[in-house]
Amino acid sequence: MIRTSRPPSVHSTNTEAGDPLAALLRPPATETDHERALRLQREADAKRISDSIDEQIRADRERYKKSKQDVKLLLLGQAESGKSTLQKQFQLMYNPTSLEAERLSWRAVIYYNIVRPVRRILDTLDLYGDEPDSEDDDAATEATPSSPGSRLGGPGRPLEPSTSFSPASADLQLAALRARLSPLLAVEQSLTDRLSGGVNVSGSGKGSIFVRSGWQARTFGMAFGRPRTSSGRPSIDEPRASLDGERRSKEAPVDAEQDKLAEDVSKVLIEYQDDVQELWQHPNVQRLRARRKLKLEEWAEYFLNNISRVSSPGYIPTTDDILHARIQTMGVAEHIFDVSLHGRTVTWHLFDVGGARGQRHTWVPYFDDATAIIFVAPVSAFDQYLDEDPRTNRVDDSLQLFKQICSNALLKNAHLVLFLNKTDILHAKLARGVAVKKYITSYGDRPNEFDAVVNYFRAHFTQVHKRNNENNRVLYTHLTSVVDTKATQSIITNVRDSIFRGYLKSAALV
Ligand SMILES: Nc1nc2c(ncn2[C@@H]2O[C@H](COP(=O)(O)OP(=O)(O)OP(=O)(O)O)[C@@H](O)[C@H]2O)c(=O)[nH]1
Ligand SMILES: [Mg+2]
Q1: How far is the CA of 326 from the centre of ligand 2 (A)?
Q2: Is 421 annotated as ligand-binding?
Q3: Residue 505 to residue 510: CA distance in whole angstroms
Q4: Do the strands 226-227 and 415-421 form a parallel or antiparallel pair, or are they unpaired?
Q5: How many CB atoms lie within 10 A of CB 42?
């Protein structure tokens, strides 16, 4: 390569005369040596900054080019369908150290998952406590539930309803319990503030809180997922969250004492666990559950059934506890990890979205370059309605949403996987005698049994896919219970292989 001098015209006074900027930039004829040195210093600084910006742009372009070859997997589905739980299973498989680093930070969520239902129970008792059983109760069509410990409860000891009370003594007992439990209820607000970071978002009907990814950062300065701006894609030069989380956790190991709030709540729970237990076992509460006037979510039952373990001094959440812990996602959280197969390592970006109706608009910026989608539909939700719209049956909402996803032009090349999730809860509900046809009238007189119910829902999802399948893409369907680690990890391996096959095929075409 040769160097050339600048063309003479650049130096000509004529050009300068026509270019007011050149005249402005020209040093004054009266410039002293000191002024000249300062000017040169300023110019050198400006050049350094300009060069580093150029370098940043070049690196961003490189990273973007490279990230185009990455796998981008979207987890989609309505609120409470199990997306974040599935994300935790991916994390457990492909970045277990980050889950380890977060373990203690889950205490605040778990404590919230106990305190909140305790308030719900007391509120429901206020509402229905004294009403006699009515013929219209849902329980009229259902068998009496087994003891709560035997439902979903994991290792918690089965709880037998206490022997019968006279209505007056039961009321007195509940009033005393309510008074005793007030210090526990008093910590609810602090937990809410901690988890939501002070963000108050309406629309979470049952009083649950929406939480942006990154709540752990507010706890311990760590994050596996990184928050994304709700307006669109984040800057490409954000640090890789998973690696970042690992690095920080190595630098500053989590100390139980660090989390003052969790320690304080833990002390309250240790003191009042017997009262929580007594409330949970109380015959009036059990009656309300049997009559389905009190419908607690699966995570509430899980933690109430495990109250003595969770309330023990020095409690550290088990992996099962973390999988059952419930915190509502807000916006979109990206999780990055490397997946190796047949000697080839590919970076995966997993996007866990908030599924409530008010959150769904945040999904769209992630559609255009999605490699694959896992649509999570909770088939156990046939007897539930959306918090956001109490007239809409949750299975119906899932089907409508699935239709939108199948027919979306931006997603037409994405590999499509369907998880019919919460099959364990479906089993338990059917075993309790909850009648599908009562909520899904089109179910008619089909048997109220697991296989028949699942086949019915599967057929509906398959039909939606068939009717909205311009590209003739395959739908991969799995029956799942994503809190079951062993089964879910084997399904993830299966999904990974099928995504990889498609990925390699399209990479070969490029
Ligand atoms: N028993 C059982 N519980 C499940 C299953 N899948 C999810 N859960 C529980 O259901 C609750 C909701 O799950 P999440 O993963 O938080 O739901 P999500 O889809 O991320 O919800 P949003 O963030 O609101 O969109 C959690 O407490 C989970 O532990 C399942 O297959 N079986
Ligand atoms: Mg979530």
Answers
A1: 8
A2: yes
A3: 9
A4: unpaired
A5: 10
H helix intervals, 296-345: 298-305, 307-310, 319-324
State pLDDT tens for residues 332-346: 999 999 998 878 889
The span from the CA of 337 to the CA of 245, in Å, is 12
Structure pTM? Answer: 0.78
**Separation CA 267–CA 253 (nearest Å):** 23
| CA 372 to centroid of chain Cα atoms | 18
Question: Ligand 1 atom 8: the closest Cα is on which residue?
Answer: 82
Unique residue bearing structure tokens 């004294």: 130
Domains and CATH numbers, the chain: 71-103+329-509 (3.40.50.300), 104-209+256-324 (no CATH)
Instruction: Give the closest residue to 238 by CA, choosing from 330, 335, 328.
Output: 335
Nearest Cα neighbor of 432 from 380, 378, 379, 484 is: 380
Alpha carbon of 215 to ligand 2 centroid (Å): 13
Q: How confident is the model over 393-432, as pLDDT tens digits?
A: 999 999 999 999 999 999 999 999 999 999 999 999 999 9
ipTM of the shown complex: 1.00
End-to-end, the C-alpha distance of the chain in Å comes to 34
Provide the greatest CA pair distance for the chain.
Answer: 107
Burial status of residue 488 (CB atoms within 10 A of its CB: 0-12, 13-18, 19 or more): buried
Ligand 1 neighbour 152 (Cβ under 6 A) = yes
Give the DSSP letter string of 235-291. PTTS--HHHHHHHHHHHS---GGG-HHHHHHHHHHHHHHHHHHHHHH-HHHHHHHHT
> How far, in Å, is the centroid of ligand 1 from the Cα of 299?
8
